[in-house]
Amino acid sequence: MSEDPRTRMLAGAVDLMSRGGLPAASMRDLARHSGTPLGSTYHYFPGGKRQLALEAVRFADDQLRSWLGRSLEQGPVAGLREFLAVWRQILIDSDFEAGCPVLSVAVTEPRAEEAVSATRDAFVHWCELLSGSLREHGTPADTAEALALLIVTSVEGSIAMCRVEGSPRALDVIARTLEELTENALAQCTLTRTLDS
Amino acid sequence: MSEDPRTRMLAGAVDLMSRGGLPAASMRDLARHSGTPLGSTYHYFPGGKRQLALEAVRFADDQLRSWLGRSLEQGPVAGLREFLAVWRQILIDSDFEAGCPVLSVAVTEPRAEEAVSATRDAFVHWCELLSGSLREHGTPADTAEALALLIVTSVEGSIAMCRVEGSPRALDVIARTLEELTENALAQCTLTRTLDS
DNA sequence: TTCGTCATATGACGACCGTTATAACCCTAG
DNA sequence: CTAGGGTTATAACGGTCGTCATATGACGAA
């Protein structure tokens, strides 16, 4: 609750962004929402809203990468489950008013903004974490990449769909399919390895 | 180019929305963009921006449903290809500045707005069109629904990802996977029917 | 022609935006 | 205690937003 103001502002910006994209995260709302004075904003973020948006996206990216990386130590399926569980919790905790902050910025901002390239980095990071874990467990590189991309994109789409439906249905339905596909990719590789030996 | 002003405004609103969500579609920009006077906006849309947003989402929904429905007459795979091709074209024609207008509104707007429930309707419509075609070709209902949901969500996520990447890569990669999954679902059902007879 | 209706044009209103300047405050160093 | 830099508070700037009132034009009906 009482971290340093700068971190509080970043976390607040992530939360506001996840509810309506960057336009919904006004400097005044952000100051009120994070319990910091409006005047301080430009003390911590001299670059103004652009810098704040950029750092907020990276903040959300780092946070999810940390969660995802830790749970991937227990294998790709555990990582997938964590990936899904995190977003499901965010949806439910916010009564389906919040979604993925990275997607919100990706959709909302003009493509030239630095914050947008940070969203691309975030998506790529998540894909690489997942596909890397799949490859470590024997999945061929192209299959791993395709499956990781399918996971990230369908989860992002599902988050938005859940938000407008006011229900975690979409996320739960694709969860089953994605788990099957992942287990399938892993089983196929163990089969291959068995045949090779 | 010279349809009635009301339709021009709706099409213009869809285009602006697809580039940065509803906040990016200001009434002034829309008037300029669609070649209609600002004062006329409230003549055609007395409900103001809310009504315009609602109708614009339905407009985009109807348009895609028409395209999708027509191509689905040639089977689920043809429909899937059309679904992907439409978005790919929009991305490329706009130099990756435009995405899915429905997703933009879904992410941008507070959940209480009527326009948001129109986005939910759109997503549901597309899922139903796809899953309906799959069922018509013998796929079991639950499999059809899960696959259709996976298609719509992953395509939506991919559109956003392509936009920030400035490349159709994501869409092309998931296209292959989705086609395989669809053909698999169809093959499995014909196999089942063969065994039954 | 005169009127009335539909469409276009213009300008203004209050509200909020991002941003900045400036004044008050706290707290540690000397 | 005093001095001074880092932080907080307040007010204001120009600009854009959605919205509306009003004025001007087009044009068929009486």
Describe this structure in words.
The structure is a homodimer of 197-residue chains. Chain A has nine helices and no strands. In chain A, 80% of the residues lie in helices and 0% in strands. By secondary structure, chain A is mainly α. Chain A has helices at residues 5-20, 27-33, 38-44, 48-72, 76-93, 101-108, 114-136, 141-165, 169-196. Chain A has one domain (57-196): Orthogonal Bundle (Tetracycline Repressor, domain 2), CATH 1.10.357. In chain A, helix 5 packs parallel to helix 8. The mean pLDDT of chain A is 92. At the A-B interface, helix 6, helix 7, helix 8 and helix 9 of A face helix 6, helix 7, helix 8 and helix 9 of B. The first copy, chain A, binds a DNA duplex (30 and 30 nucleotides) through helix 3.
Can you describe this structure in just a few lines?
Chain A is mainly α and 197 residues long.
What is the helix/strand order of chain A?
HHHHHHHHH
The percent range for helix content of chain A is over 70%
Beta-strand level of the residues of chain A, as a percent range? under 5%
The profile of the biggest β sheet of chain A is: none
Most extensive protein-chain contact, per-chain counts: A-B, 45 and 45 residues
CATH architecture of chain A: Orthogonal Bundle
List the total number of helices of chain A.
9
Determine the structural class of chain A based on helices, strands and strand pairing.
mainly alpha
Looking at CATH, which topology of chain A would you report? Tetracycline Repressor, domain 2
Oligomer: homodimer
Distance between the termini of chain A: 55 Å
Number of strands of chain A: 0
Q: How many discrete structural domains of chain A?
A: 1
Average per-residue pLDDT of chain A, rounded, comes to 92
Q: What low-confidence regions of chain A span 5 or more consecutive residues with pLDDT below 50?
A: none
**Name of the CATH superfamily of chain A:** Tetracycline Repressor, domain 2
